[in-house]
Design a protein that fits this description.
The structure is a homodimer.
Chain A: H1 5-8, H2 16-31, H3 38-45, H4 49-55, H5 59-83, H6 88-105, H7 107-118, H8 124-148, H9 158-177, H10 185-201
The structure holds a DNA duplex.
DNA sequence: GTGGACATTGACTGACCAGTCAATCTATCT
DNA sequence: AGATAGATTGACTGGTCAGTCAATGTCCAC
């Protein structure tokens, strides 16, 4: 019974903590956080029940970890975009792209973050309201700058604008998550443009005069 | 002092079913659907535990009832608005007004509907995805008509436009619910205008010669 | 003033599951 | 080999609650 698995263990062996987190994403996405048992996570990860509690203090902490890992990457992205001297449309597009790409790269993870944390602001969101607010504020700053440049209307408060932008994206992901909107590479790419065009340019045909049916 | 109480049961004093529903709204809003116990609802309503199960088959059914009661009123409102020959902006404003007024009239109920059903599409939303989709589609029709009239851009799909509109409103309510946005009569009124202006007119100052699709 | 239908009561049960813990395994160092 | 520390195991415990049900109350019809 030779098993070569013990040699490399320390170096490369699967980091069980990571294995548990990845398994949790799949289980949360499939069954929902509340509906799944910790034993489901352990089974999915192929480890013993107790090991989950060796690495995490509670079931909640597993979800917290998943959310924060990803959300912080997004906050950093937004900060970086904000700091660069680009036109608003490009900044918005960079943010929308990041989020849409995150979804297309790992739908399960984004589903968990959106459904179980972001959109569940009563339970977990409450805990992470600070993180969520941070995103709003960073986007708000981008808007403020655009207003100062005269590119964005001054009569729509930056906070509100940020909300509309973020709300549109969240609704878009929600539509994908629940099968209300078509998915696939082209749809993802088009969605990025649609978000920016809708929020920046509005739904109306840009007629200077009035609305006249030609 | 006419004996109003004994003639017909239906007329008499508080209909316990209603009392339970109203109590449930307060309890769900305060503690959240998952975190509260059925006994909390009974206590809040001032009735025995078992009575809840006399009127409702399950805890879920209580929430379902609350959601459907209100959501159907909204669907009807949208249908009526849609059927009238008004400019899109006025249609959108009527819908936004209805929802904002619903919130200002009974924040607890709207909180429950948004947080526990609409935004919790994994658990309950799944059940009510049809109702939610219906709202999308009705709004989508309004957009389609506006496109046919040439008032709305044709290159933004009606479905997507409906999503952006609804998403912005939902995000707005969510902001109020979690204290991220200021409330009060003036804010509510202004919000109605902001939603319509943002979605229809966009965030940009109207510049001619942006993206031109020939 | 009796019977029956429905309203109301609340103690109880059965299932479920997060989190604990003592035992066991594995790797590494001396 | 023996010692130490961390990783891993899974049976078990304690508490929670949704839902049941048999008993009791109330009202109306006749």
């Amino acid at each position: 019974m030779s098993s070569g698995r013990s040699i490399v263990r320390a170096k490369t062996g699967p980091d069980k903590r990571r294995v548990i987190l990845d398994a949790a994403v799949r289980v949360f996405a499939r069954q929902g956080f509340h509906a799944c048992r910790v034993s489901d996570i352990a089974d999915e990860a192929g480890v013993a029940y107790g090991l989950v509690y060796h690495y995490f203090a509670s079931k909640d902490e597993v979800l917290d970890t998943l959310f924060l890992e990803r959300w912080n990457v997004m906050l950093e992205l937004i900060r970086e975009v904000d700091s660069q001297p680009l036109p608003v449309r490009q900044k918005f597009e960079a943010i929308a792209s990041f989020i849409v790409d995150s979804y297309s790269h790992d739908p399960d993870l984004m589903k968990v973050i959106i459904v179980e944390v972001t959109r569940a602001a009563n339970s977990f969101g409450q805990t992470h309201l600070g993180q969520i607010r941070e995103a709003y504020e960073l986007i708000g700053e981008i808007v403020t700058k655009a207003q100062e440049e005269g590119v964005f209307k001054a009569e729509i408060e930056a906070r509100f604008a940020a909300m509309a932008f973020y709300g549109t994206i969240e609704q878009l992901l929600t539509g994908w998550i629940f099968g209300l909107r078509p998915q696939g590479k082209e749809h993802f790419e088009r969605a990025k443009w649609l978000v920016v065009e809708t929020v920046c340019g509005g739904l109306e045909t840009s007629v200077v005069g009035e609305t006249s049916v030609s």
